[in-house]
Write a structure and sequence with these properties.
This protein is an alpha/beta fold. The chain has a single domain, classed as UDP N-Acetylglucosamine Acyltransferase, domain 1 (3 Solenoid). Helix content is about 20%, strand content about 20%. A six-stranded mixed sheet has the order 3-6-11-14-16-17. Strands 2-5-10-13 form a four-stranded parallel sheet, covered by helices on one side. A four-stranded parallel sheet has the order 4-7-12-15, with no helix packed on it. The chain is globular. The chain starts with 11 loop residues before the first strand and ends in a 10-residue tail after the last strand.
């Protein structure tokens, strides 16, 4: 798959979370919010959970990429997914990882945020695309939040939390992540 084939979804509001007391109600509400039957929604959620577990511990990048693609994640050829990476299970179709990008061990890519209803005056419940552009690096144990694009050749340093877009050809670090270095694209060796 090539990133030029990606059709990036628009951000949208989603229902606020709830502490449902039964799977039946959880699947009913989840299906309604996605315009699908509760059975189909339940199947997809359970399937994605098992695919997540398999991908999380898979010993090979090829297997991790294949399992995450089957889950619905948009992953271009040549991308690297490290072990123990969490990619949003509820909205995997909102995650986009382009060619030669790498998401390293222990990192998290989150496409949605649905707090409990008592937070609605402070936080917006939403799902928004996360895009990791060509040759970008998300280093170990970093978190990329909903709606963030990590630019081409950008580096998210280890253990960073990214809440805003990362410009191309930069290194960001910290919580919240801030730009600590800019560099010329000419320094990047590209395979043609």
């Amino acid at each position: 798959m090539k990133s030029s084939e990606f059709q990036i979804k628009e951000a949208k509001a989603i229902p606020y979370g709830g502490q449902e007391k039964s799977f039946k109600k959880t699947f009913k509400n989840g299906g309604e919010s996605r315009s699908m039957s509760p059975f189909k929604y339940g199947y997809i959620r359970i399937r994605n959970y098992f695919l997540f577990l398999l991908a999380y511990f898979a010993p090979s990048n090829r297997i991790r990429v294949a399992l995450n693609r089957f889950k619905g994640v948009n992953i271009a050829d040549g991308a690297y997914i490290g072990m123990c990476v969490f990619i949003d299970n509820a909205y995997p179709e909102y995650i986009y990882i382009e060619e030669d990008a790498s998401v390293n061990s222990g990192s998290e890519l989150l496409a949605h945020f649905n707090p409990l209803p008592h937070w609605e005056r402070i936080f917006e419940a939403k799902v928004a695309p996360v895009v990791i552009k060509k040759r970008a690096i998300v280093a170990v144990h970093s978190v990329v939040m909903p709606g963030v694009t990590v630019g081409e050749n950008a580096v998210v340093s280890a253990m960073s939390a990214v809440y805003e877009n990362v410009p191309p050809n930069t290194i960001v670090r910290g919580n919240p992540a801030v730009v600590v270095q800019k560099f010329s694209e000419k320094l990047i060796k590209k395979d043609n």
